[in-house]
Design goal:
Distance between the termini: 40 Å
Radius of gyration: 18 Å
Number of strands: 10
Shape: globular
Bound molecules: adenosine-5'-triphosphate, magnesium ion
Amino acid sequence: MSNDAIRLRSVTRRYGAGGTSVTALDEVSLAFPKGTFTAVMGPSGSGKSTLLQCAAGLDRPTSGSVTVGGTELTGLSETGLTLLRRERIGFVFQAFNLLPSLTAEQNVSLPLRLAGRRPERARVREVLEQVGIGDRARHRPAEMSGGQQQRVALARALITRPDVLFGDEPTGALDSRTGREVLTLLRGTVDRDGRTIVMVTHDPVAASYADRVVFLVDGRVHGELAGASAEDVAARMTGLEAAPC
Ligand SMILES: Nc1ncnc2c1ncn2[C@@H]1O[C@H](COP(=O)(O)OP(=O)(O)OP(=O)(O)O)[C@@H](O)[C@H]1O
Ligand SMILES: [Mg+2]
């Protein structure tokens, strides 16, 4: 059994065809070991979101292979991909993407309902407690702060107990204190529950919560740092942005 939650081998993603085509990912090979927290950084347009979408089975690479817990995604049908995402993968975005007419509790229950499973109220409450908003179960998104809404989104991603949690700038819309609280929760799901996290961020402080930071430039991996401080990450980013194309 592989020790990797996700593995990408020579993944290329090209958008469009002919002279106007864009290579968003160019032969990217990366492994995300189980129970680790990886941050992905790089300039705007370097392919970070595309990498996440391909790794999470939301998008299909033009070439190369992606395996999730040993399952090769390339050969899966749309239905197979949907089932795999539902059972093994959670996703949180910068925009919380909550349904405005539903309460926190109902938003969190949604993935289970979509999977045809009856959500147990005790389980929903447990996850809301876990992210620190047990007292907001009956509130609708408009009645909550940004940090509380992101906690609901996190609870919604965790309700199915996914092996891997992907975040595309999950703290991008939060102030720094609230962002840190969410990052502490993410760190906790890795340390306590052995979950694997891959998080895109522009913020060196956010990246310092990760075990490893992978840098992308023009769709290619451009080195990585392990156990880096926010200062180390910021210095590397400055170097990358200054590098000639
Ligand atoms: N659906 C699409 N159609 C065409 N080109 C796309 C599409 N999605 C992304 N691209 C292009 O692919 C490249 C990588 O985009 P991507 O969104 O992965 O970058 P990113 O690193 O997430 O940037 P940001 O930090 O701004 O979010 C960019 O040049 C972008 O314009
Ligand atoms: Mg992006």
